[in-house]
């Protein structure tokens, strides 16, 4: 694996065109860049292609054209296992814990490719430190945990392979506002532990409050990107995507 690329970006999706089968393209020349150790958030309307971006980044969907780079290494066309080995972990939308297994068994599954037992034990200690809830409920059946707690188990499992970047697809889906707050705190902890995050969220305002960089997707491209705080402060963006109010009445269209 090469060290950080000259561009300074850990993950780069460059001019990606991608879609499903014979249907029209979903991504039409999309470029997203994730710096090492940063949280980048994708927001945009339903069906804009946010989840599709994550599928391309983790190798679940091969792009028709464009390039995927990890640490400056071209990994375009590689599958999910190879992308995981390159340092890209994907936490899918919805809940993916095995309910009949314990928290420990669920988390340790994330390290099943690691042969060295000492490394597995060291990684398990690391994720238990990072997510105290996971340590507290280590021997509980995962199915007994709440939705937000199960999300933390999924985060912990994804970190077992020490990924460079974690792709999070709608981590707050189905969670109440308080639990959503806890999940976002855990995302901040992941960043503090040195893991970059590419985040897709319906809860755009909350996500931008956590992220370093925001990207607004529209019509299969990044429409606007920049420091998340600036996007949050943009009244037009607030009205369009963040459920806010315009700073001034909308202009009357010219005839
Ligand atoms: N497996 C699939 N097969 C065919 N079409 C798909 C598939 N997955 C997604 N699509 C289509 O691709 C488009 C983009 O979907 P995607 O899930 O990436 O959007 P999104 O921005 O994440 O939407 P949402 O916010 O509703 O989750 C949609 O028109 C969707 O119907």
Automatic annotation (TrEMBL):
<keyword id="KW-0029">Amino-acid transport</keyword>
<dbReference type="InterPro" id="IPR027417">
    <property type="entry name" value="P-loop_NTPase"/>
</dbReference>
<dbReference type="GO" id="GO:0015658">
    <property type="term" value="F:branched-chain amino acid transmembrane transporter activity"/>
</dbReference>
<dbReference type="Pfam" id="PF00005">
    <property type="entry name" value="ABC_tran"/>
</dbReference>
<dbReference type="InterPro" id="IPR052156">
    <property type="entry name" value="BCAA_Transport_ATP-bd_LivF"/>
</dbReference>
<dbReference type="InterPro" id="IPR003593">
    <property type="entry name" value="AAA+_ATPase"/>
</dbReference>
<dbReference type="GO" id="GO:0005524">
    <property type="term" value="F:ATP binding"/>
</dbReference>
<keyword id="KW-0547">Nucleotide-binding</keyword>
<keyword id="KW-0813">Transport</keyword>
<feature type="domain" description="ABC transporter">
    <location>
        <begin position="11"/>
        <end position="244"/>
    </location>
</feature>
<dbReference type="GO" id="GO:0016887">
    <property type="term" value="F:ATP hydrolysis activity"/>
</dbReference>
<keyword id="KW-0067">ATP-binding</keyword>
<comment type="similarity">
    <text>Belongs to the ABC transporter superfamily.</text>
</comment>
<dbReference type="InterPro" id="IPR003439">
    <property type="entry name" value="ABC_transporter-like_ATP-bd"/>
</dbReference>
<protein>
    <submittedName>
        <fullName>ABC transporter ATP-binding protein</fullName>
    </submittedName>
</protein>
<dbReference type="GO" id="GO:0015807">
    <property type="term" value="P:L-amino acid transport"/>
</dbReference>
């Amino acid at each position: 694996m090469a060290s950080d690329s000259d561009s300074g970006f850990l993950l780069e999706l460059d001019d990606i065109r991608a879609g499903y089968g014979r249907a029209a393209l979903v991504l039409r020349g999309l470029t997203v860049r994730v710096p090492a150790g940063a949280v980048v958030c994708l927001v945009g309307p339903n069906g804009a292609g946010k989840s599709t971006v994550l599928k391309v980044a983790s190798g679940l969907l091969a792009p028709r054209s464009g390039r995927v780079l990890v640490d400056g290494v071209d990994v375009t066309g590689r599958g999910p296992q190879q992308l995981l080995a390159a340092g890209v972990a994907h936490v899918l939308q919805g809940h993916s814990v095995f309910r009949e297994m314990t928290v420990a068994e669920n988390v340790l599954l994330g390290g099943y490719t690691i042969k060295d037992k000492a490394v597995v034990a060291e990684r398990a200690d690391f994720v238990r430190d990072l997510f105290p809830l996971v340590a507290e409920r280590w021997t509980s059946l995962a199915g007994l945990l709440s939705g937000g707690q199960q999300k933390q188990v999924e985060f912990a499992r994804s970190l077992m392979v020490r990924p460079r970047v974690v792709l999070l697809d709608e981590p707050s889906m189905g969670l109440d506002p308080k639990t959503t707050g806890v999940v976002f705190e855990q995302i901040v902890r992941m960043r503090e532990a040195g893991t970059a995050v590419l985040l897709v969220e319906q809860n755009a305002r909350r996500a931008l409050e956590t992220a370093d960089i925001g990207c607004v997707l529209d019509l299969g491209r990044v429409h606007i990107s920049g420091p998340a705080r600036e996007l949050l402060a943009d009244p037009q963006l607030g009205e369009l995507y963040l459920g806010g109010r315009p700073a001034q009445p909308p202009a009357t269209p010219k005839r």
